[in-house]
Amino acid sequence: MSGFAIKGWCPSALRPMLSGDGLLVRVRARGGRLCASQATAIADLAERHGNGFIDVTARANLQIRGVREQGYEPLISALAALDLIDTDVETEGHRNMLVAPFWRDDDETQSLATELERALSATPLGLPQKFGFAVDCGTKRVLAQSSADVRIERGATGGLIVRADGAQQGREVTSGEAVEVALALAKWFVASGGAKGGRGRMAAHVGSGARPPHLLAGDASPAPAMPLPSPALHRTGALVGLALGQMTSATLKFLATLTPGLRMTPWRMILIEGLGEMPRHDGLVTRADDPLLRVVACTGAPACAEAHVETRRLAAALAPGLPAGARLHVSGCAKGCAQPGRSAITLVGTAGGLDLVRDGTTRDPPTLRGLSPAGILDRPFVLTGALR
Q: Is the dihedral of CA 253, 254, 255, 260 positive or negative?
C-alpha cells in the first residue's frame, strides 16, 4: 500500500493540488456560510476557469475542480475580491474550522466562529495542516462525528465548554473565554509534542496518554450528540444532499437563487437558509431514504491521477442494492480521501483490481482481492455476503 503519496495536507485556494483533471482549488467559506452573491460568483468562476464541477468536502468546503494553469491567477484574484481567501498560505491553513450549520442568532455560534477565525489569522500556532477546530453551540451537538481537534461546544448543563478531541470532558467557559481557551489548548498540543512530524491529531495525542493541564482539561461533560442528519426541513432552512458530494456550477447557481445564504456542512450537504420546502433539481438528494446517502466515493479515475479505478458510476450503480443501514465506501486508491473512517463495506482500487474490506478502512486487510467492477455489478451478492 505504498504506491501513493501521502501529502499530509489538503488543497486550499493559495495551495492548490494538481489532480488528473487539473488544479483543485478549495474555498473555505467564512463562518461556514456563503451569501447568495458569493455562491453565484463561485459557480461562474468554476465555469470560466475550471471544468464546471464543484466538490463539497468533508471539511465543509467547496472545491473547484479542473482549474487550468492559465486561469489560476485570475481565479485567485476573483476569490480575493469576494473575501474568500487569506493573505498567505500559513494564515489560510490555520483557518481550518467546522461551524454547526443549524445556528440561530441567539446561540453564539456565529459570533464565536468569527472571533475564532480572527484569532487564528492573527496568531501563528505551528499546527499541522489538518488540525482543525469545531464550533458546535446548538442545544445538541451536530459535529460530534466530524473530524476536529479542538471543540467549542454546548455542555450537558447548558453552558459552553472547550474540549480536546479524544477527551471525555472539557473545561466550562463563558462566551468571552471560549476562544482564548481553545487557542491555549492548541498551543498545549504543540508544546507537548503533538505536532511532531507535521501530521499529528489531538485524539491520537490524547489517546497516547498526553493530558492537558487541569485548567484546560476541566470536568464538564458535553451535551448529547445528534445522529448524522438527513435531508429534511429545519427551522433554519432546507438541508439537501449532493449526489456523491459533487455538483455542477448550474446546481450551485440554482441554490443561490433560493436563499440569502448557503451554510456548508461536513456531511456533503448544504443548508439553504430560510427555505420552507425541499427544492427539486438534478443532482440534489432530498429524501432521507435515498440510498446515495449511504455511499461515499472519491473522484476516482481518470480525474484523480492516484486512482486505479473509476469510482463514482460504480458507487451510484451499487447504491440501490445495499442492505438497509449498510454504508459503502468506494475509493480509487488506498488513501481513502473521501472517508478516512470505517464503513461496512470498502472497495479499494489497486493495480490488480478492487479489494473488498469488511467493516474497516482502506488501510485494513481485505477479505477479497482483485475484483473487477463488472464482476461486482454482475454478482451483487459479493457485497451482501461480505456483510454477514
A: positive
Q: Look at the domain 291-386 and name its fold.
A: Sulfite Reductase Hemoprotein; domain 1 (3.30.413)
C-alpha 185/C-alpha 182 separation (Å) is 5
Cα distance between residue 34 and residue 244, in whole Å: 21
- Measured CA to CA, the distance from residue 167 to residue 218 in angstroms comes to 10
For residue 75, what are the CA distances in angstroms to 23, 36, 71, 88?
Answer: 11, 18, 6, 16
More confident residue, 11 or 49: 49
Task: Please write the tens of the pLDDT for every residue from 80-91.
Answer: 999 999 988 888
CATH architecture of 17-85+236-285: Alpha-Beta Complex (3.90)
Q: Is the model's pLDDT at 15 over the cut of 70?
A: yes
Q: What is the 3-state secondary structure (H, E, C) of 333-381?
A: CCCCCCCCCCEEEEEEEECCEEEEEEEECCCCCCCEEEECHHHHHHCCH
Q: In the prediction, which pLDDT does 157 show?
A: 96
| Maximum distance among all Cα pairs of the chain, rounded to whole angstroms | 59
In whole angstroms, give the CA distance from residue 64 to residue 25.
5
